[in-house]
Structure formats: C-alpha cells, structure tokens
Amino acid sequence: MVSGSKTAFRAALVQMRAGRDVGRNVTDAVSLIKEAASKGAVYIQTPECTTLMELDQPRLMAETKPEQSNPALQAFTDAARKQKIWLHIGSMAVKVAEGRLANRSYLIAPDGNVAARYDKIHMFDVDLGGGEIYSESANYQAGPSAMLADLPWGRLGLTICYDLRFPALHRALAKAGAKFIAGPAAFTRTTGEAHWHTLLQARAIETGTFILAAGQGGLHENGRETFGHSLIISPWGEILAEAGVDPQVIIADIDAAYADQIRRKIPSLMHDRDFDVVVATPSKSPHLVHEQ
Q1: Which residue in the list 54, 120, 136, 179 is annotated as catalytic?
Q2: 162 near 203, Cβ under 8 Å?
Q3: Nearest CA-CA partner of 117 in 78, 148, 85, 74
Q4: What are the pLDDT tens digits along the chain (292 aa)?
Q5: Are 190 and 211 in contact (CB under 8 A)?
Q6: For the chain, does the N or the C end have fewer beta carbons within 10 angstroms?
C-alpha cells in the first residue's frame, strides 16, 4: 500500500457483467466495491452501465429512474460513506425527461455526497456489420460539458466509453490540470479486440495522464457481448493492471507525481501551435509530360 505521500493512493477498478435486473446489478457492484476497499483502495471505479444493460427500449425506460428518486444512487452513496472511499460509478442510466435518459457518471466523496456528475458527450451510433447496430442517441441525450473534479491526490477528468475515440476531449482535460482520466466503458467485443488497448495507451501517452478504465466483460443477458480487460495505464503508456473477461477487481498504486515527471520529460501539452489546414490543388498546366 502506498503511504507517506500526498500524491499517492491505491486505485481499484471493478469489472462487471451487468444484466437486466437493476437490484441484482447494484448488489453485485456493492459486493465488488467492498472487496476493493478491503484491499486498501481509496478510489474505486465501476464500469459504464453499472446498473443496467438493456437494449429493449420500453424495458430500459421502465427500469430507469430520475436521480432524485433513484435507489441505486442511494445504495452507492451509502457504500461510499460506509467504506470511506471515493466511489466513481462509471455510468448509470438516469431519466432526465419523458422518454429521454442521460448516461451519467457519479463521483461520490467519502462522506456520501456527490462531488461531480458527468453526462457522456459522444453518443455511440454505429453499425459494426453483421447486424451489430447501436443507436445510443435514440434514448440518451448528449452531455454539454467536459468535467473535472479534484481528488485529494490530483485532478480527475471524467469520460465515458465512446469518448475514448475523441482525443481532443482528453487533451482538453489534461490541459485543464487532470493527472488522471477515467474511461469507464462497456466496449463491444468486436471493437475491444481491435482497438481497446491501443486507444487507451495512446490517450495516456498523448496526455501524460494515468488512465483508469473499468469495463463490462462477457456475454450479457440482453445478448450483448463486451470485451472486459479493464486497464490501469501509466502516463508513459505502461499497463499497471489488467483484468480478463470475468467480473473481478484490479488494483494499482498510483502517484500523481509520476505524471509531472513524464510531462517534464515530454512537455507536448505546452507545445500546441495554431495552424491552418490547406488543401493542395493540382497543377493547372495544360501540358502534361509522360515519360516512356
């Protein structure tokens, strides 16, 4: 366990295989959160869709509650307070209007109060082929703002899943002082096998931040298959901890001072320059010379 430093702490990622029963998912999540806390973790993150993995729209709407009357959120604030941890619920569906949801992260302080909320900005609207189609914007409204929050050890930037493919967001968070960036996800097996490790390591290296990405893993009740492989990555791109596919907890000791060290070594966050984008036009010469 790290000790004796104001910038060092133990982080844990909770990997899940959430189903269609909110109560069961919350119970499973809280059990894994307690396991992580028992191992000394003081920042614990769960994946995207912690409370529900549901593709059927009527059932999704029926099972999702507003924040003000959400028993799942109450269970998580209680868990944070009892365990005296910073609990980051990677995301859960929250009803914000009739027929409209937010895919929202909650960072909960050790006193049980919500320290930050982040609504996913980039909607996962894709056709992966073979009948694998997702249209997140059909049910969810995109968030309007990037979000950062100050932890005792440094500043945390919040993202969710598909946000990973937008490096400008991560760079903006890093330039605003983030030493750690959270990337809770429910990456599909198809996209995860192709891109998960590469994208996460690239975002860490580009920004000089620790990346903390808890994932969903395995075949879910709704038929969706997710990639798992929750990852904690250093600012140098090193994998500090990695899960497999099954539900589990992974742990890593982190020191924000290492992010400062890497940024001094490669200060690319300070080297941005304005530039124009120019499209070259072909020669308008009427004579073309062909060599035989």
Answers
A1: 120
A2: no
A3: 148
A4: 455 689 999 999 999 999 999 999 999 999 999 999 999 999 999 999 999 999 899 999 999 999 999 999 999 999 999 999 999 999 999 999 999 999 999 999 999 999 999 999 999 998 988 888 888 999 999 999 999 999 999 999 999 999 999 999 999 999 999 999 999 999 999 999 999 999 999 999 999 999 999 999 999 999 999 999 999 999 999 999 999 999 999 999 999 999 999 999 999 999 999 999 999 988 765 565 555 5
A5: no
A6: C
Identify whether 120 is a catalytic site residue: yes
Locus of tokens 């893993």: 217
- Out of 49, 54, 161, 179, the active site residue is 161
Cβ(22)–Cβ(74) below 8 Å: no
Token couple for 44:
């614990």
Q: Which residues contact 130 (CB under 8 A, 6 or more apart)?
A: none
The side-by-side arrangement of strands in the sheet containing 147-151 is 147-151, 154-158, 178-182, 210-213, 231-233, 239-242
| Known catalytic membership, residue 65 | no
Active site residue 67: no
Q: Are 187 and 196 in contact (CB under 8 A)?
A: yes
Burial 226-257 (b: 16+ CB within 10 A, else e): bbbbbbbbbbeeebbbebebebbbbbbbbbbe
71-83 vs 22-38: helix crossing angle, rounded to 10: 10
Write down the pTM of the prediction.
Answer: 0.94
In this structure, the dihedral spanned by the alpha carbons of residues 224, 229, 230 and 233, taken in order and rounded to 10 degrees, is: -140
Catalytic pick among 48, 54, 95, 136: 48
Two tokens at 228? 């798992």
